[in-house]
Amino acid sequence: MDKKQQCVARVNGTPISRFDLENAMQGYAMQEHRKTLDQLDADQLREAESFAMEKLIARELIFQQALAEGFVADEAAIAEELRKIVDNFPSEEEFHATLAKAGLSAADYQRMLRQDVTVNQMSEKYLADLDDPSDEEIEDFYRQHADRLVRRGRVRASHLLVRAGGDNREQALERIRRLRDEATADNFADLARKHSDCPSAPGGGDLGYFRRGDMVKPFEDAAFSLAVGAISEPVETQFGFHLIRVLDREEDRPLTREEARPQIVSFIRQQAGAGRLKQWVEELRAQADIEIMDNRAD
Questions:
Q1: DSSP string across the chain
Q2: What domains can be seen in the chain, in order of their start residue?
Q3: Reported pTM
C-alpha cells in the first residue's frame, strides 16, 4: 500500500499517514542529528518514531484549534523559519540534496513547516499572558542552582573543509592529509582561503567563537580537545574532512546573580509554559477522537 494512503493514526477523523509519520521522523533526524532516517541507529530510530507520533498528534490538535479560531501563520514567518533551518547546512544546495536523499519534496517540507509554524505561533498566543517569575522565585532559583549557573566555556576556531561524498571519500581523505602536511600556524589561514570548501574560506576559515552543542559532535570534540594554536589531524563529519585550528579559548566561569537573571527568567517561564501547554494538549486530547493503529512499523 502507498505510504500516503496507509493510515497510522486519526485525530478527529483527520488521518496521519505513514508518509506523514516518516516525514516527521525525517524532519526530526535532520534537525536533531543532521542525518537522513536511514543513517540513524536503532535507538535513534525508536526515539524519532515516538517523538514524531506524539508531535504529530499534538500538532494536529493545536492546528485544528488554530483553524477553528481562524489563525494561520503568515508566509514571512514560514520563510524565516526555513532560513534558520537552511543555515544549519553548509549551503542551500546541501539542504536540498539532503531533502532529496530523505525522499522529501520541497512541497512536503513546506507543508510540514507551515503547520509547525502555525502551531508554534498558536502556542505562543496561548502563553502570551504567562507572568514573569517574581524576584523571590528568581532569588530562590539562583540560591539553589548557583553551582550550575555558569557561562559555558567557548573556543574560537578556524577550519579548512574538504567535502566528501559518494565515491570521492578516499580522494578527499588523501587531499586533506596532504594539506595537513603543509599546514602550520603561520599558513593555515592562507590554506583555508585557497583550498577550503566552506563559505568561511574568504575569512581564512575563521568560525568565530562557539560553545559545546553549537557544532556537530566530532567537530566540537576535536576543537575542545586542542590547545590554543594547535592544528588537528583530519576530522570527519557528514560535511567532509576538516582541519581545525583553535585560535582562543575561554573557560567556564560562574554567573553573577544579575548575569544569570535573564537565563533564570527564561527557564522558569519555559517550565511554566511547558506545563501549561501539556495541560492544554491533554484537554484537547480528552475532547478529541484519537485512534492509533498498530501498523506503524513494517
A1: --TTT-EEEEETTEEEEHHHHHHHHHHHIIIIISS-GGGS-HHHHHHHHHHHHHHHHHHHHHHHHHHHTT----HHHHHHHHHHHHTTSS-HHHHHHHHHHHT--HHHHHHHHHHHHHHHHHHHHHTTTPPPPPHHHHHHHHHHHGGG-EE--EEEEEEEEE---TT-HHHHHHHHHHHHHH--TTTHHHHHHHH--STTGGGTTEEEEEETTSS-HHHHHHHHHSPTT-BPPPEEETTEEEEEEEEEEE--EEPPHHHHHHHHHHHHHHHHHHHHHHHHHHHHHHHS-EEE-S-S--
A2: 7-131+265-292 (1.10.4030.10), 153-250 (3.10.50.40)
A3: 0.55
